[in-house]
Specification:
Shape: globular
Largest sheet: 6 strands, mixed
Number of strands: 6
Strand content: 35-45%
Radius of gyration: 14 Å
Number of domains: 1
Oligomer: single chain
Order of helices and strands: HHEEHEEEE
Strand order of the largest sheet: 2-1-6-5-4-3
Length: 134
């Protein structure tokens, strides 16, 4: 099961790097989703796939203005919580075209996934505080 979850998260980052907001909303997330509204530090609930897609489009606009070119995963800590639930802490970076990270150099996000007929889907995405500030 760990491998299936890791594959889903890698697919998520691949879609993210290709700015596929609608595919992320339909294929990776399962609304309603608890997530951080991009550009805001407050977590809230996106109630529809359309709202999830809109949040990702806002995110792409914001991070591209900072020079973002792609994101890379450094490490995933996956914990399986039964047959249909998984928890993932992902350490990742957002990189500019020159390969330099957009600060903070490493970020952490925590995800809750549920397994459905369509596969593993994210129902909660929580941004953590800057690990470099701790």
């Amino acid at each position: 099961m760990d491998k299936d979850v890791a594959t889903r998260m890698e697919r998520y980052v691949d879609l993210f790097n290709n700015e596929q907001a609608d595919a992320i909303a339909e294929e990776i997330y399962l609304a309603p989703v608890q997530m951080r509204k991009f550009g805001d530090e407050i977590h809230s609930v996106a109630t529809t796939a359309k709202e999830v897609g809109e949040q990702f489009n806002l995110m792409f606009k914001k991070i591209k203005s900072k020079g973002w070119k792609r994101s890379v995963i450094h490490h995933m800590d996956i914990k399986i919580g039964g047959q249909d639930m998984a928890f993932v802490d992902m350490r990742f970076s957002r990189l500019m075209a020159n390969g330099e990270p957009i600060p903070p150099a490493q970020r952490i996000a925590s995800y809750v996934l549920v397994k459905r007929k369509s596969g593993w889907r994210i129902i909660s995405a929580l941004g953590q505080s800057n690990p470099e500030a701790n």
